[in-house]
Amino acid sequence: MAAGKASTIAVRAGINSDKHYGAVVPAIHLSSTYALKGFNDKRQFDYSRTGNPTRATFADAIAELEQGSVGIVTSTGMSAVHLLCQLLTPEDTVVIPHDCYGGSYRLFTHLAKRGLFNLVVVDQNDDHALSQALAQKPKLVLIETPSNPLLRIVDIAAITQASQAAGALVAVDNTFLSPLLQQPVALGADIVFHSTTKFINGHSDVVGGVLVTKEQALGEELAWWANCIGITGSAFDSYLALRGLKTLPLRMKQHQENADAVAKFLKNHPAIEHVYFPGFSEHPNYAIAKKQQVSAGSMMSFELKGGVEAVKMLFDNLSLFTLAQSLGGVESLISHPSTMTHAGMEIEAQLEAGITQSLVRISVGIEDIDDILADLDHGLTVSQQG
Ligand SMILES: *Cc1c(COP(=O)(O)O)cnc(C)c1O
Asked: Which residues pair with 97 in a beta bridge?
């Protein structure tokens, strides 16, 4: 999709849709219920868990941006993941990546323990492990790329093709890039989902999710389940996320410009051992990233010299970066995966996954790049003086 097209979809979503007052911006519809026209004569909406005009406007915009047919807005990113589990029976097998989002890993492993489905966890860059997993004829294969926090990339088109040939549905977590930088449905996936908490809303004031299906029938089945189990997103959150969406194309441009500059700066900084960033030609999966992503995205992580003491010194000496988990907001955030996002993992498992004590993750915001670099330079320099 051309960038201009995406900007138009994002900006125009719901504009001029008010037939009553001619409001330019779509109204927020907070009503939980809707009057029937008369006996047994329903309108388009009847009850807001099932359907809501504000939520529908937001869902349709994301479905269009992702080039899918049905969008379902959920209360959180995790409820979008949970919605996928409604497709599964105890006889079904699910394949998830070994380095998927911690919350997804927790959900799938705990539901599998209760016998709701069989679970296979694989490194999807390991062709042998992947084909062994696909030989079990899974019902669902989950893909997440780039991964968190090491920004590993897997080939969406190739994994999708192999999975579908084995009879599986493919669902891609596209949270780290947004529909502006990667479009899994166009690469063949059946389902794409997001934590809209991150880039799509982009202002760190909503927790939400969205799921888009390529096919209408699968979308209707999942929408039926979303209403049935009661995980649809609120009107107010949908309103805010729709408002955030309007500037997504513009924000992504600035996120990318800043991230490219930060990555280059970090790579050349004497305090840094290694930078994980898919925009570097030396990144092991650079060719795949180049093929399937519009650009690298604004997430990166790095190994700091000097161990955990240096990490503490760095965090204590930053003033622009906020020490917090989450990502994709306009503000720059910094975090320590080992003690924050990945604290639920045993230390040995962390190390096996490449998450060391000196690994630092950043979400590059859209502040002035000179201020971002000056803050990092100060913090990094002081971190080495311990
Ligand atoms: C945050 C996140 C989620 C979960 O979303 P919530 O909105 O926090 O429930 C899922 N996947 C990825 C990649 C995320 O970053």
From this structure: 122
Q: Give percent above pLDDT 90 in the chain.
A: 94
pLDDT at 117 over 80: yes
Interaxial angle between packed helices 77-85 and 216-229, expressed in degrees from 0 to 180 and rounded to the nearest 10: 110
291-347 tens-digit pLDDT: 999 999 999 999 999 999 999 999 999 999 999 999 999 999 999 999 998 888 788
Q: 178 in ligand 1 pocket by Cβ < 6 Å?
A: no
The rounded Å distance from CA 207 to ligand 1 centre is 9
Atom of ligand 1 nearest to the CA of 100: 13
Best probe residue, ligand 1, of 78, 177, 182, 326 (max atoms within 8 Å of C-beta): 78
Among the three residues 229, 245, 261, which one is the final residue of a domain in this structure? 245
Listed residues 181, 213, 245: the one ending a domain:
245
> How many Å lie between the centroid of ligand 1 and the Cα of residue 195?
5
CB 175 less than 6 A from any atom of ligand 1: yes
Average pLDDT of 283-289? 98
Residue ranges making up the domain that contains 278: 248-383
The answer to whether the CB of 208 falls within 8 A of the CB of 197 is yes
Looking at the domain assignment, is residue 1 inside a domain? no
Considering the domain architecture, whether residues 283 and 223 belong to the same structural domain is answered as: no
* Whole-Å CA distances, 373 to 243, 333, 368: 29, 13, 9
Catalytic residues: 49, 101, 173, 198
Per-residue pLDDT reduced to its tens digit, 335-382: 999 999 888 878 888 888 889 999 999 999 999 999 999 999 999 999
Contact 174 CB / ligand 1 (< 6 Å): no
> Whose alpha carbon is nearest atom 8 of ligand 1?
77
> Distance between CA 103 and CA 78 in Å, rounded?
7
* Closest CA relative to residue 373, chosen from 329, 318, 324, 327: 318
